[in-house]
Amino acid sequence: MRFEIVRKKEFHTTNGISAIDWSVTKFADELYHCNDDCQLRLWQVVENHSSTIANLSESWHPIALRSCPATKHANKSTTVSEAFLLATAEGKIAVISKSGRVEKIVNAHNGAVLSAEWSSDGISIVTCGEDGNVKLWSRNGVLRLHLAKVDQAVRCVRWSPDNSRVVFSFGDKLQINWVKATDKLPFKWHANQGPILAVDWSPANNWIVSGGENGKIKATNQLISFNPFILSPRHPNCRCGMNSAKLYMSLWVSRRQSVPLFGPPTWLATLEIIPDAEVSTICWSSDGTLLAAGCSDGQIICASLLGTIRTWEHLEAKHLDKCTIEVKNFQDGSVERLDTTDFIGHFDLGWEHLIVVDPKKCYIYRSKNWNTPIIMDLKHGVLAIAMTYKLFLLTDGHAFYIYTYEGRHQNTIYPDISQLLQSIQFSDAFNTLLGVQNENLLLWCHPSAAFFDTNLCEKCIIPIERRCGTDIGKNAKIIKFFNSHTVLQRTDGCQIFCALPIFPFALLKFCQACQWDRALRLCNQLETDELWATLAVESTLKKKLDVAVIAYAKLNEVEKVSFINDILSNPSRDWLNEAHTTLLLGDVTKAEQMLLQKRSFLNAIMLNVHLNRWPRALDIALKNKVYVDVVAGLRQKYLEEENKPETINSFLQLEDTVHVDLADIQKKISMAEI
After folding, report:
1. Is 619 helix (H, G, I), strand (E, B) or coil?
2. Which residues form the IFT80 second beta-propeller domain (predicted)?
3. Which of 123-132, 271-280, 319-328 shows the lowest per-residue confidence on average (mean pLDDT)?
4. CA proximity to 279, closest of 263, 292, 261, 262
5. ∠ at Cα 555 (554, 560), nearest 5°?
6. Is residue 599 within 8 Å of 627, Cβ to Cβ?
7. Helix (H, G, I), strand (E, B), or coil: what is residue 629?
8. Looking at the predicted structure, is the pLDDT value of residue 405 above 90?
9. Which value, to the nearest 10 degrees, does the dihedral of the CA atoms of residues 446, 447, 451, 457 take?
10. 161 contacts 206 by C-beta, under 8 angstroms
11. What is the pLDDT of residues 613-652, one digit of tens each?
């Protein structure tokens, strides 16, 4: 692996670049920086255009600049903040908008503020300074908590990935303090020999990594033990900080004229700076594709990592140049060079397709004709790519975007199917998902069940017993998942080959081939809920209801058995049975649309009544001017049984205008078939 500089720009300053950070925009291509000339500047890396945002106070000497992270709300929408956090040598912290307006200034410490960090949700700020204090602030600059006080300067402070703790360095020690549970005692240990100059808490693998004045970089996996181990040999002239990529297990540690990249288990690559420059500050872009290094001579250098290789069967793709990928076909010996208009951020290879993402576009190449890719304009950033047989997925860290290989957008919703997982990967042959949770392997035989029945999805989970001959440890990573085998990588770099149970894969193979008799015999022979649940999902998705009813009966799903039997007993009702089957798959909206298209208004109304969607039921009745009395009467009966007052305005307006005859309503309801 190697580095290539994709952009370089020189800014005429007196004392070089003192602080830089990437804006958390959807494309992560805006770099903000400031220096002792008291100017806050914006560099748009893709367009290579720079501008001055604000002239700061001449008495300020910036030390750190941090962009407020994007926040995710309960409704799954994402908000990108317009604020920056600036720390100065005068003991102040300032919140500055992207327009350059200083919104808040706080005297935070006596002496310089040496480090200031946003929490990952953008709600809180933690600072440390020369006075030995570590403080917690609200985003409006209100002091919330005095976390710690030590007898020497605190050089660095970082949040844990879950925002529950902070780690800070003073002298040769590191200390962890809890933010919310103040009754829990802090933990302190010797992390290096000599003063610690930089520390980071990696969100990728939960490592706490520190760089010391002695030039050694040490890492601590706090989930396993607090015994630090050396991540790299001694590097002379180690002078600055470190920064972890968001999705990768790589750690950047800057020296005077170079920035080496480390990841388990050893050194990976080095970015060499021009001889006359010294690295003063570094940071990753929010999508983990670009490293920006600010230098003492006023230069800012953006570099990307090249040499990454992806393989699939007889094909190999290599990131050869900043805008070039080389594809080799080992069957016929052919070599193709594929170029993009801008520098490549992510790419992946699989299923006869190559997906390439640059800052603004997504290229979909087909192995049958590499020269005519499908090009999509992206409306979001990309952190990672995952590929399956018919679809591929892009994620920006807040949502999942699913596309076909023709470039059509399919979905943006991905439900939660488990607690926190350290690593997940889909099988290359089946619709199965393998995950690492703590020290255990979990196999989702059919994760598609999460889209229409979460309870059924839980029954499709098989905990994998330790078949690897050794302990996989915590934070293991899945390297490859093929057929019924997987390759895991432990945190010490050791790779382990594991064999998985073959029966779920045999069952899925029978279902794919429509060999339902063999699938039933396999489930009857083994009699496990996981296999019956998998068969129920697969047969329901393929609308093989005579098989699905057997599987649901074995799972004691009485309501589903009754529902399917009603469908099977009336084969002449084609369109109504189709709506019922769609409802069984959990797609209420589509089932309602099918009923309305056939002008089956009573069935559509009763569907919403059964689901307690009263406003929608009334809306259908009023819009089509039918069965308004049915909706009003059923609503009145429901409120009387629950002993509740009416609170929906649309029903309150009907009280004096609609006559309710319960006997007549009952006759009309008896005509409904849903």
Report:
1. helix
2. 311-414, 417-502
3. 271-280
4. 292
5. 100
6. no
7. helix
8. yes
9. 70
10. yes
11. 899 999 999 998 888 888 888 888 888 888 888 888 888 8
pLDDT given for residue 276 in this prediction: 57
Strand partners, 462: 443
Secondary structure letter of residue 644 according to DSSP: -
Task: Give the C-alpha separation, 521 to 509, whole Å.
Answer: 14
Give 448's DSSP letter: G
Please, which pLDDT band fits residue 132 given cuts at 50, 70 and 90?
very high
Query: Strands of 49-55's sheet, edge to edge?
Result: 17-22, 30-35, 39-44, 49-55
pTM: 0.61
Q: Are strands 391-395 and 384-387 parallel, antiparallel or unpaired?
A: antiparallel
**Greatest extent of the chain over all pairs of C-alpha atoms, in Å:** 93
Q: d(Cα 491, Cα 485) in Å, to the nearest integer?
A: 20
Q: What is residue 508's three-state secondary structure? A: helix
Domains in the chain with CATH codes: 2-306 (2.130.10.10), 307-410 (2.40.128.630), 415-569 (no CATH), 574-674 (no CATH)
pLDDT in tens, 221-248: 654 444 554 455 555 555 445 555 554 4
**Rounded CA separation 585/539 (Å):** 11
CA-based angle 51:382:231, to the nearest 5? 90
Q: How far apart are CA 120 and CA 107, in angstroms?
A: 23
For residue 325, give Cα distances in angstroms to 248, 316, 344, 585, 607: 21, 10, 9, 41, 53
Model confidence at 511, pLDDT cuts 50, 70, 90, reads: very high
CA-CA-CA-CA torsion for 542, 546, 547, 548, nearest 10 degrees? 70
Q: DSSP secondary-structure letter at 68?
A: P
**E strand or H helix that includes residue 364:** strand 361-366
For residue 443, what are the β-bridge partners? Answer: 434, 462
Q: Report residue 265 as tokens.
A: 């288990």
Tokens standing for 165? Answer: 């703790």
For tokens 């801008």, what's the residue?
Answer: 342
Distance, CA of 75 to CA of 77 (rounded, Å): 6
The pLDDT of residue 189 is 84
How many CB atoms within 10 Å of residue 451?
A: 18
